[in-house]
Amino acid sequence: MLVVLLPHRVTAGPGWLAVRGPLHRRAVRTDALTAVRQYTGVSAHLVLRDAHGHRLELDPRVLVDNPLLWHQLDTGVRRSLERGTLRQGADVLERLGHEIDDRITRAVLKASGPP
């Protein structure tokens, strides 16, 4: 049996986030999220669910490594919170946001060189 491992492709736009694998594409409305869960361990991942019954999983490192994807998700999450649809997991995304902000700050300080 031959197994080919290809990385998932994560894309985002205003109000949506999608993950495309070799066999399927999953998308959620980030402006209508209902739940976010984070699983840790060897295969750490986030699970996002929206009000339309859609669900996707992604590696949180994708968001940490790509601030533009994170920005799209964060903007949608804020809308979900404003609308009252996000009832589980806002704290997970808040922690992830702090991690991303810290990483960006360290990168900027490193790039600016010694004082």
Describe, in plain words, how this protein is organized in 3D.
The protein is of the alpha+beta class and 115 residues long. The chain has one domain: PH-domain like. 40% of the residues lie in helices and 28% in strands. The strands form two sheets. The protein has a three-stranded antiparallel sheet with strand order 1-2-3, with helices on one face. The radius of gyration is 15 Å and the shape is globular.
List the helices and strands and how they pair.
Layout: E1 9-13, E2 16-20, E3 25-29, E4 33-39, E5 45-50, E6 55-58, H1 60-65, H2 67-83, H3 90-112
Antiparallel strand pairs: 1-2, 2-3, 4-5, 5-6
Helix pairs in contact: 2-3
In helices, the fraction of residues equals 40-55%
Query: What is the architecture at the second tier of CATH?
Result: Roll
The CATH topology name reads PH-domain like
CA radius of gyration is: 15 Å
Strand content: 25-35%
The total of helices stands at: 3
* Major sheet summary line: 3 strands, antiparallel
Uncertain stretches: none
Structure class: alpha+beta
Q: Characterize the overall form.
A: globular
What labels describe this entry?
6 strands, 28% strand, PH-domain like, three-stranded antiparallel beta sheet, alpha+beta
Write a brief caption for the model.
This protein is an alpha+beta fold and 115 residues long.
